[in-house]
Amino acid sequence: MIICSLSVWLPVHLNNQRLATFASNLYNYPLPAETVVIERRATLGKVGNGNNCWYRAEQSMKSTLSVEEISNYYNGVVLPKINFGGWVDNYSTSPETQIDLKFDEVSSIAREIFFTLELLDDGSDITLDYRCH
């Protein structure tokens, strides 16, 4: 029974650790001036067919900077992809992924801009994590 429990728990635990490391790359990236974090979310989920999972990290913020200043600050920023312990993704040419910046025009008011950064990566080396099958 212990071996069966371990075989279910270990892959989930490993992918949760990968997700936490992946998300910390985004969360630890320096904030622009006059910006505060509102919320952070990190999720792992199944998308489509096959044996894969999507790793997603989001960070919602508000700032008194302009949309242009925020866009310029994050323009071209890339952060490390999921690390699978030396496994090389043959379909990717870069070990990094770009931050996706989304502005929330509904919530934004005259002097406060609300926006979200998203970091997304897929993993096909997901071991035996039941969430990815």
Topology:
Blueprint: H1 2-27, E1 35-45, E2 53-63, H2 67-74, E3 78-80, E4 96-98, E5 100-103, E6 113-123
Antiparallel strand pairs: 1-2, 2-6, 3-4, 5-6
Low-confidence stretches: none
Based on secondary structure, the structural category is alpha+beta
Number of strands: 6
Q: Taking all residues together, what is the mean pLDDT?
A: 84
Shape: elongated
**Major pleated sheet:** 4 strands, antiparallel
Strand percentage lies at: 25-35%
- The total of helices stands at 2
Radius of gyration: 17 Å
Measured as a percent range, the helix fraction is: 25-40%
Helices and strands, in order, run as HEEHEEEE
The span between the termini is: 22 Å
Largest sheet, spatial ordering of strands: 1-2-6-5
- The count of domains is 1
Highlighted features:
two-stranded antiparallel ribbon, four-stranded antiparallel β-sheet, 32% strand, alpha+beta, 133 residues
Structural account:
By secondary structure, the protein is of the alpha+beta class. It has one domain (2-132). It is 26% helix and 32% strand. It has two helices and six strands. The protein has helices at 2-27, 67-74, and strands at residues 35-45, 53-63, 78-80, 96-98, 100-103, 113-123. The strands form two sheets. Strands 1-2-6-5 form a four-stranded antiparallel β-sheet, with helices on one face. A hairpin with a 7-residue loop joins strand 1 and strand 2. It is elongated. The two termini are 22 Å apart. The model has no long low-confidence stretch (mean pLDDT 84).
